[in-house]
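Onboarding guide, step 5: your first structure request.
Type a short instruction followed by the sequence, for example:

Predict the 3D structure of this protein.
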Amino acid sequence: MAEPQALSAIQKSIIPIAAFTANGDLAQLKTALAAGLDAGLTVNEIKEILVQLYAYAGFPRSLNGINTLMTLLDERQAQGITDETGPDASPLPADMDKDDYGARVRAKLAGWETIPPPSGYQLFAPIIDTFLKEHLFADIFARDVLDFQSRELATIAALAAMTGTGGQLFFHLGAAMNTGLTATQMTDFITVIEANVGKEEAEGAADILERVLSNRA
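The system replies with C-alpha cells like these:
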C-alpha cells in the first residue's frame, strides 16, 4: 500500500488551531477553529486539542482558546449552523497504573524498545517526570477522543509557534513520525505552518525536521 502523500484536510486543520492557541493570536484562532469545524473536526475533538495544549502552552492560553471556541459556537448556532459534538472520552480503567502506562507511551513515542533508567531532569526534579508520565502521557494521552497522530500534530504545531522550544520540537517531530506520519506528511506540516502561521516559524521547524530526518536515515 502506498504511503499517504499529504495530510488529510482534518489533520491540516489541527495545525493552525494548535499554533494560534499556543501563540495567543485569538483572532486567527477563531478563524482556524471555524475552518476546523468546516473541515469535519467535532466540537469534542477541538476541545480535546485545546485541553491538551495546557500541558505545552500553559493554562492561560488553553483557557483563552476554550473561551474563543465557546464564543464561536454561540455565533455559529445563532447563524443556524449545527456543529457535530462527537463522542466524549471513554472512562479510564479504575485500576490503571498511570506511571507504567505513561512511561510506556513516552517510550513508544520516543521509539525506545526499552524504558531507560531516569537521568538528567528526571533525577533532579523527579516530580516533573511523575507529572509527565501520569498526567500528560496517561491522563491526557489515554483519552480516546484523539488518536496519537492527532495529538502529536497538535503538539508540534504548538511548539513550532512558540520560541525557545526547539529541543521539545525535535523530540515531538520524531514522535509524530513514530506514530506513523511520513516524511512527506511532515514536509506537508511545514507547508501548512508557513501558509497559516508564518515563514519564520516554518523555517525554524524545517531546520529541526531536517535534523530529525537525518537521524532517522
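Each response can be followed by summary notes, for example: The chain has a mean pLDDT of 97.
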